[in-house]
Amino acid sequence: MDAISLEIMRNALYSIADEMTVALVKTAHSTNIKDRRDCSSALLTPQGEVVAQTELGTPLHMGTMPGIVRVALGAFPPETLAPGDVIITNLPYPMGPGHLPDVTAVSPIHADGELVAVAASTAHHVDVGGFAPGSMPFGVSEIYQEGLQIPPVRILKGGRLDEDLVKLITQNVRTQGEFMGDLMAQVAANHVGGRRMGDLVRKHGVAGMRSAMAELLDYAERSMRAGIRSLPKGRFTFEDYCEGDGLVDHPIRVRVSVEIREEDVEVDFEGTSPQTRGPMNAAITAAYSCVYYVMKAVIDPDLPTSSGAYRPIRVRAPEGTVVNAKFPAAICNSNILTDQRVVDALLGALYQAIPDRVCAACSGEMNLVNLGGIDPRTGRYFNSVETYAGGQGARHDQDGMDGVHTHLTNTRNAPVEVTEATYPIRVEGYGLVPDSEGAGRFRGGCGMYRELTLLSDETLFSLSADRRELRPWGLAGGLEARGSDCWVESAGGERRQLPSKITTTLRRGETVTLVTPGGGGWGDPKERDREAVRQDVRDGLVSPERAKAVYGLDPRIPV
């Protein structure tokens, strides 16, 4: 295929993946998807290779899609599938999503009686049962406590919904309306993908589409190999830590070695901590996602998001470690914390090879909050799930952004108006945290805070946070950022501190305050542009006292 035709086909397939995600967001029921966009869509070959994956969604799904589809097609071989079939699953083991709330829908795309492609969508559902609302609790020690496990099953057969299966699933989840609304949104998204692919097949033919998809995978591979050839060669090692698993406080080490060879890269997690008893363990597919995301970001962000780009990358993760846990290890919070630490470790290693292409440590945690209980306005279960933004790490030539989702979480915030209208929650405060940035010649971004007052009689609260003591690090002389924090204040003004990983009960009228970490700085703070320091003080992001003590500038003294 000539270069122009190849580029036209590449963009056609990517536009389909994007349109699938737009359809999913627009038809979803839960705030987590329709407002926060915690979802992804992709087109794959019948062999389970990603040809095009949207970048409107979550990077964490980059490495999980191929494994999920292969497992689904292993359970339902192509010859057994018919148009209108939809398979769903949420099993992390052996090759699946990062945790049970991530339900994937897989739809075959037929043309002329043949399977030519697969449409897939993954969405984070607000509840799939288990120990606590949101299905991401602490205090659990095996996956059976976390929620309903759905093996690959056909939820639609020939376009007809299996009502008996729906009854079985919804009986085991708390927020049944949101679950089915979001699942049907995934079905709609896959339908859009199938319809648009049908248009392309009618234009190019079955053989033409298969040839084009193969060409696109090969093109992505060539592009990645070309990028690797431009990198310094060698082996680069780094390690970073998570602060316990919610059951014990010992640090969890993530150690990584990145070996850059002539045209390929090997990433080795030897030396990483053994799997834990608490829910900080990850399946191997999460390690793939972290590695693919980082390598794409540092080598060429414009590389096609397809399986072809990852052919030159090898990942070795010893079985029984927190990045390749054995069933039935508890797993539900690995997406939120462990995987973010894997990204930090990878960037720390690559800083030694290509410092101008990485950033200092970002907030390093998704600061996930689940709030669930009975809504007194309706008498029904509610569950609010949100990850709170933090500071982005600075780069060699620019500041980090303030209050932004970073790395594996490409989600948005839930607007205050939506939160208060949907849940028995009142938002008392929401903003950036002054002096939370990692100081440097280029500063890291500031973290943020939210104050939430609970309006239901009892609310089960799960917090998944980190970077409280081991704070986001800086580079090239840049300083670390402020860490996370969380406390609860009663209606009478009594205040109690909460650990970073907890599932507990809150009462009506209590106010929980959440603070997220900032991002690490880059370079000596004393070398920061003087006017930039003054502007930060004027904006309320840096206090006059910090400006003087850390940046060496008293903003009250005229230039």
Main sheet attributes: strand count, strand direction, barrel closure: 7 strands, antiparallel
Shape: globular
Tell me the total number of β-strands. Answer: 20
What Rg is obtained from the alpha carbons, in whole angstroms?
23 Å
Output the strand order for the largest sheet: 2-1-5-4-3-6-7
> How many separate domains?
2
From the N-terminal CA to the C-terminal CA, the straight-line distance is 62 Å
Mean pLDDT across all residues, rounded?
95
**Annotation field: number of helices:** 10
**Which bin fits the share of residues in helices?**
25-40%
Order of helices and strands: HHEEHEEEEEHHEEEHEHEEHEEEEEEEHH
How would you describe this structure to a colleague?
The chain is of the alpha+beta class and 559 residues long. The protein folds into 2 domains: 3-223, no CATH class; 359-559, no CATH class. It has helices at 3-27, 31-34, 64-75, 163-170, 176-229, 284-299, 334-351, 416-422, 530-538, 544-551; strands spanning 39-44, 50-53, 86-89, 102-111, 114-124, 153-157, 160-161, 234-243, 251-260, 265-268, 313-316, 368-374, 381-387, 425-432, 448-454, 458-464, 485-489, 495-497, 501-507, 511-515. The radius of gyration is 23 Å and the shape is globular. 57% of the residues are buried.
Quick recap:
The chain is built from 10 helices and 20 strands. It is α+β, with helices and mostly antiparallel strands and 559 residues long.
Helices, strands, pairings?
Elements: H1 3-27, H2 31-34, E1 39-44, E2 50-53, H3 64-75, E3 86-89, E4 102-111, E5 114-124, E6 153-157, E7 160-161, H4 163-170, H5 176-229, E8 234-243, E9 251-260, E10 265-268, H6 284-299, E11 313-316, H7 334-351, E12 368-374, E13 381-387, H8 416-422, E14 425-432, E15 448-454, E16 458-464, E17 485-489, E18 495-497, E19 501-507, E20 511-515, H9 530-538, H10 544-551
Parallel strand pairs: 10-11
Antiparallel strand pairs: 1-2, 1-5, 3-4, 3-6, 4-5, 6-7, 8-9, 9-10, 12-13, 12-16, 14-15, 15-20, 16-19, 17-18, 17-20
Helix pairs in contact: 1-5, 6-7
